[in-house]
Amino acid sequence: MEHSDKEYCLEVWGDYACFTRPELKVERVSYDVITPSAARAIFEAILFKKYAMRWQVTKIEVLNPIKWTSVRRNEVGSTAKIRSTGIYIEDTRQQKNSLILKDVRYRLWAKLVFIPVGERRKEAFAKHKPGTDENPMKYYQMFERRAIQGQCFTQPYLGTREFSAAFRLVNPEKDALCPALSAEQGGNRDLGIMLYDMDFSNPKSIQAMFYRAEMKDGVIIVPPLNSEEFCDDSKGFI
User: Fold this and answer.
1) Residues 6 or more apart from 112 whose CB is under 8 A from it?
2) Are 191 and 33 in contact (CB under 8 A)?
3) Distance in angstroms (rounded) separating the CA atoms of residues 87 and 131
4) CA-derived radius of gyration, the chain
């Protein structure tokens, strides 16, 4: 049976967002727009079945003008060890400035990539082995039903968990879509080197993947995983 990767569109918005630049270690500074990994996480919050499917972000549309604000937040400067008795917050509290986005709204496009049973990793069958006739329609219907009803397994967020996101499923053929940013509104800009996602193919050496992001008329085209546009944090651009 042939399997097609169906593309879906979500409109996502929130009061604040912070898509942290990894090169800035101390103070949090956001990218100008949402990153592909953050967009993928929003789709996964609605539906994700490990080993059976994955999400491939294809396009990001920026709907609201890019606006900034600065806030000061309390953060904990250490992590709890496995055998620790806990963390006393007053001893590890750190006040840090954050440069974040405000009043954001995006239209996110992603394909639901179905992984056939014969191509799944052995770990997928530890508890249950699906039938060989399993098809992607099951997952299409699950996602559509959950997204239409506003259901999610975890609350979607915009970069950090305190900035929750609202969403709705968009039908491009039926719904009236508001236009993306025009050139006059700042919709044309070179966003520079942006985090694409993390490469977990080798658990002992997890690498960050970057790509050169460019926005034209408010639209960012996201390259596929097998693209030559990527670089990682150890090898530089391919």
Assistant:
1) 5, 6, 7, 8, 53, 55, 136, 139, 140, 143
2) yes
3) 47
4) 19
